[in-house]
Amino acid sequence: MVPKEQIQASVKQFILSEFLSGEDADELEPTTPLVSAGILDSIATLKLVTFLEEQFSVQIEAHEADVDHLNTVEDISNLVLSKL
Amino acid sequence: MNLHAYLASAARERSGHAAVVAQGHKALDYRGLDALSDRLRDRLVALGVAPGDRVGLCVPKSADSVAALYAVLKCGAAYVPVDATAPAGRNAFILADCGVRAVLVEAAAADALVEALAELGAGPSALRLEGVGDGSGLAAALDAADAAGEAQATETVEAAADDLAYILYTSGSTGKPKGVEITHRNATSFVEWAHGALGTGADDRFSSHAPFHFDLSIFDLYVAAKSGATLVLVGEEAGKEPVGLARLIAAERISVWYSTPSVLSLLVQYGKLETLDLSSLRLVLFAGEVFPIVHLAALKELLPDPVYFNLYGPTETNVCTYYRIPERVAEGRVEPYPIGVVCDHLAARVVDEGGADVEAGSEGELVISGPAVTRGYWGLAELTAASRLEGDGAVVWYRTGDLVVEEEGGNYRFVGRRDRMIKKRGFRVELGEIEACLSRFPLVREVAVVALEGEDGVRVKAHLATGDGGRISLLKLKPFCAEHLPLYMVPDAFAFHEALPKTSTDKIDYQALLALEGE
């Protein structure tokens, strides 16, 4: 079982390197809104889903790729955790 | 002729046929849609809505919201749809600007909207809907209102052709959205043209991908009703998710698809189309922006059977030119297809800055006249006047702002814009509206927003002068933008400067900023 902290760290690292290069890592908190704040757009969301599926060997359903499931690092990690 | 006559006639002739399908719900038939919109009409009249009034709609796409817009039309009023996911302050500005008498709002968004309206000194009657989908949410809200006092039965108002049917707000260069006023005649002249030219029929199943505040929705809603066909609603979230969207097209056996090219580009790249049976599709229509040829060619390769049309036209005219995409995309073609020939119900010319016709084959601005040309912008007489050619007597020529070249065969080719409006995922974006927003961010001294063309469409980049040239965290800037602008207007990228480059007349030098991209 992968601990939640490890999932969070991995998701955070991916988002920082892919979509927020040059940003201070401390500014991205587990509860920072991402989709609703325009930080992850629809293409970024698709890339994130691909990353999660490959990294954690999980299947994200089409209806889960939305603001309700992917808006924060915390939400994203919980979604992954629920599938492990 | 008016728009709600299409519903009346379908309810008479196709009463038990599915009119609207919302995902995860049972279909609402034409009889049911007609009856539900009659009930809401009576309630709106009881709330004081009279012919000539405006009514705001801030409700996610659903059979409920389709019934709602017909109900407003049946009152002889005009509906004003706003993006339920956009900031409440922006929506309140829109609804206060055109002075809506009443507003229908989904419960979740209601408090924020009513509060934002009150801050602007506006207090329209609000009817709250909970749990919209197949119309039962609206029916329940009407039951609740009836329990407190039955609404009197009223008659549908047979709106005149020149009465206002709806107002669509688009991005405004001054930082405030502007409302395009569309009459029944404007809309029905387009619907009649589209129905005839594209040959839609009662067996068709239309997609409804565009939100109702976007003018692509007019085709979906009313050409489907005119055809007595079924409208399959695609929700805001589902519309952005390509795998689910592709499955929806297959499962619902959609035959007439209409969306922006961005959506089709996403579908072809990420939708796993090759795994699905999409043989129901017979017409694929796109509009709103240039379709990158690489994605269009890939789509036609995967789905060779449907007929593809590039439709073109601003909200102020709806579709005014159209082009049938050839069977085969020539190998190695990089040039996007033309926007096509003028629609039969309209006339087009290409003019220079003084309004004189240019020589055939020369670049100029496309201007349009005819029954679909709208009468202007709500409360903005100067802007309305500036949007027309001067001195053409009784004939109004709307200036599209789009530069075109007429090719042999009468097809127009889009060359560029005359101003600073761009299309982002099909939505109109005035770069000035984004600049107005960013200039209010505390650390920003100067701002210039530019559009960059890329393989995957347009990207918006904001250049900010912060005094010391220091960067501001995207985790602060983007949420600030998202609080004031719809998400499609939030810049994709930011750059930080000590000061922005200036021209000799001390204006911001946009060309110099664009040139930075090449470095």
Largest interface: A-B, 22 and 23 residues
**CATH homologous superfamily name of the largest domain in chain B?**
ANL, N-terminal domain
The helical percent of chain B reads 25-40%
Count of individual domains of chain B: 3
**Beta fraction of chain A:** under 5%
Strand content of chain B: 15-25%
Distance between the amino and carboxyl termini of chain A:
7 Å
- Which regions of chain B are unreliable across 5 or more consecutive residues at pLDDT < 50? none
The global form of chain A is globular
Output the CATH topology of the largest domain in chain B.
Answer: Rossmann fold
Poorly predicted ranges of chain A: none
Helix percent band of chain A: 40-55%
CATH C-level of the largest domain in chain B: Alpha Beta
Side-by-side strand order of the widest sheet of chain B: 11-12-13-14-15
| Global shape of chain B | globular
Major sheet description of chain B: 5 strands, mixed
Question: How would you portray this structure in words?
Answer:
The complex is a heterodimer of chains A (84) and B (519). Chain A is an all-alpha fold. Chain A is built from 4 helices and no strands. Chain A has a domain at 34-84. Chain A is 52% helix and 0% strand. In chain A, helix 1 crosses helix 2 (42-56) and helix 1 crosses helix 4. The longest helix of chain A has 16 residues, at 4-19. Chain A starts with a helix and ends with a helix. The mean pLDDT of chain A is 92. Chain B folds into 3 domains: 4-236, ANL, N-terminal domain (Rossmann fold); 342-417, Luciferase, domain 3, CATH 2.30.38; 421-516, ANL, C-terminal domain (GMP Synthetase, Chain A, domain 3). Chain B has a 5-stranded mixed beta sheet, with helices on both faces. In chain B, strands 2-1-10-9 form a 4-stranded mixed beta sheet. In chain B, strands 4-3-5-6 form a 4-stranded parallel beta sheet, with helices on both faces. In chain B, helix 1 packs parallel to helix 8 (216-227), helix 2 packs across helix 3 (63-74) and helix 2 (30-46) runs parallel beside helix 6. The longest helix of chain B is centred in the first third of the chain and has 17 residues, at 30-46. The N and C termini of chain B lie far apart (57 Å). The model of chain B has no long low-confidence stretch (mean pLDDT 94). The chains are: A mainly alpha (84), B alpha/beta (519). Chains A and B meet through helix 2 of A and helix 9 and helix 14 of B.
